[in-house]
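Handoff note, outgoing to incoming analyst
You'll be picking up this chain. Sequence as last confirmed:
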Amino acid sequence: MEKILIIDDEKSICDLLSVVFGKQGYEVKKSYTAAKALELIESEDFDLILTDIRLPERSGMYILKQVKKTKPGIPVIMITAYGTIKQAVDALKAGAADYVMKPFDMDELKIIVANCMEKKRLQEENVFLKKELSEKYSFENIVGKSKKMIEIFSLIEKIAGIESTVLIRGESGTGKEMAARAIHYLSRRKERPFVTINCGALPEGLLESELFGHVKGAFTGAVVDKKGMFEVAHKGTLFLDEVGETSQLTQVKLLRALQEKTIRRVGGTSEIPVDVRIISATNQDLKRKIENNEFREDLYYRLNVISFEMPPLREKKEDIPLLVNYFIKKHCEKVGRKMKRVAPEVMSLFESYLWPGNIRELENVIERIVAIEDRETITEDCLPEELLAAHGPEIELAIHPGFNLNETVDTIAKQYVQQALYKTGGNMKEAATVLGINYRSLRYLIEKYQLKDFREDDDGA
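Most recent structure output, in case you need it:
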């Protein structure tokens, strides 16, 4: 039952309104003084307040202002016998839902109250729906039940409500942008834009224009003023993907934007204030880039207030069946096909494959299968050749005269080291992890097998 508080120092008016709205089906509380009313407002929850403007000790305007401070969602209707246009304007400016004059028409007042109640219900439903939307987009596209993913979910929930910059590390295809979106949709900025830009996909001049905008005539082709992504993301979140690819000049301008909270369009002279939360992502070792004077240390510490890593798929194999079924459902629904099942031997192949392209590669494989295969069960012959090639036939032992076990082991070990380096893009630290050895052991094997293309200076980190 919706609850109304009626406040009027004229006892007869207060009692009459209490009876009328009680018969309307509302739960009604009444008060003849501002002091008692304020006590009730503090201790109880009301859906609407009707208050006279002129009250002993404290005015109805004072009550209105207190309600807007402490419980702003409650609509307040102001009533007075001494109304003026100025009073009406002042009350509405202070946040009153409506304003009625004594003597008032009771039917009109009933309609005003009903309209205010309906508006409040719609607002509450809207908040609820937005909360549901927030929950839907928070983790729906980040699927996982592994320990590492549970830890990331927990961290995202903790950091979403604060304004600190976030740096998300991880290989390509691990879901860094999805994690950034989850942070945004759980934050107070969720109703504002989430704007993304891939810093590695644009040349320096174009990237600067995309980030900060430009004024007409700033360069050839700049025929009109254009807002940059910082301005588009005002009050929202700006996601800088592959931030490690930015040039030194762009890094300087990014640092200034973060420090001053203002930007200057290319070719412009005026400073434009911006309120943007920055989330950035990289698949590179930014500390290594700092050592090589390729990335500014001061910008790194601005971006790296909070940092976490999205793990590669090979490090969370227990998530693979969950992801496979998620992507099958997603793409079957997308093209209007019946849900497919996965043969056990195929799932085993999925779980043992290294997935150098991570979750993005897995989804692409599933999307391709759903698009071109009519059968309901996904079998081995549905899989792409490159995936099957990674699971060749078992090696037949060929022991013959002159066989040398050490040489054979070295040949096989060299092939595994080469494959691991290839699949990790030459990143020695990741290759060592894939092979289950430490970094120093991998360096030793690279020297031993004379893999000159993958020495420490070229580890791809």
